Amino acid sequence: MLHTLLAAIGLAVCIALAVHMVLPYRARARVDAGVARLGAWLQSLIDRATGWRRRQRQTRAAALEAERVIRRARDSALHDDRDGRTDGEWDGNVYRPKSFEKPKKPH
Fold this sequence. Notes:
Layout: H1 2-22, H2 25-83, E1 88-91, E2 94-97
Antiparallel strand pairs: 1-2
């Protein structure tokens, strides 16, 4: 059964190539362009089908990395507060040190 199927596919490919070689130049170019469009369409379908998992993993990894960086910055700022080096407040995930609120000297 498998041998018969492979033989049939091989025969179909040989006949298609023979017909392709007999076609005039313009018809051959048109067939080649159609096959290229079909291949590009199939490739885009495959990319869309396999790419959504990759995009999900990248989005999840980016969110975890952002959370880790924010947590590290918060811990660092709290550590600095305990040492008395900086004084400030948190506004969401933004830390604003009190040292930034000093009035600027005019030049």
